[in-house]
Amino acid sequence: MLSLQRIESGYGESNVLRGVNLDVEPGQVVCLMGRNGVGKTTLMKTLMGLLKTRKGSIQWKGQELSTHDPAKRARSGIGYVPQGREIFPQLTVKENLLLGLETSAASVKTFPEDVLAMFPVLATMYGRQGGDLSGGQQQQLAFARALAARPGLLLLDEPTEGIQPSIVEDIRQVILQIKAKGEISILLVEQSIDFVRGAADYIYVMDKGAIALQGTPRELDMSQFEHHLSV
Question: Which residue range or ranges hold the ABC transporter domain (predicted)?
């Protein structure tokens, strides 16, 4: 289980996150929504240790992570697909995938076949450089790389942003496959209400660096929901 209590974080002298409380239960898909600039990506970066936790607690499987560096958090079983994908454009698809094994606790050198089966197009592109792939293909590559080390928690920061509808549907199906197995928890930042409704067990809505609304898709009042998402 992931549990955030009263998290504060930000950039320079600016505080972006203001007392954020958030939980992700085992096997659960939790979606984090909100307008641009309200702190969603800041929260994901704070979770991974890319930004310092100024106040509050990050508990993962009962262990306090707020003072751990990103590498230690990854080795504890947290996978991360950042906004913008951040694959290595000069490396081949195969090399990018194998880098995902570096955070595995086990000394595994072969990319897991069941993960590759979720993204069959990647197997046909092993020798191509990552930078030659389309945006949607790069997103699938980043997603597969994060799954390589068998994380217990997967952080996905806007995985459908700027990609073609067919690959959006492929990504949705992968999330649903992971959810059905119940072995990996997912914290997903997403803007599409329809996408979230079809995948989420629980939703948090952020506004001005704090959680403004939360509940299951059935519980949320849609008028309030749309108020916090409208520009």
Answer: 2-231
Q: What is the reported pLDDT for 104? A: 66
Helix or strand (DSSP H, E) at 225: helix 222-229
Alpha-carbon distances, residue 60 vs 24, 47, 76, 101, 131 (angstroms): 10, 10, 8, 21, 34
Query: Within a domain: residue 161?
Result: yes
Evaluate whether residue 185 is within a structural domain. Answer: yes
Q: How confident is the model at residue 102 (pLDDT cuts 50, 70, 90)?
A: confident
| Token reading at 143 | 């997603």
CATH number assigned to the domain comprising residue 17: 3.40.50.300
What's the CA gap between 51 and 7, in Å, rounded?
A: 12
pTM of the model: 0.91
Total domains present in the chain: 1
Tens-place pLDDT, residues 8-18: 999 988 899 99
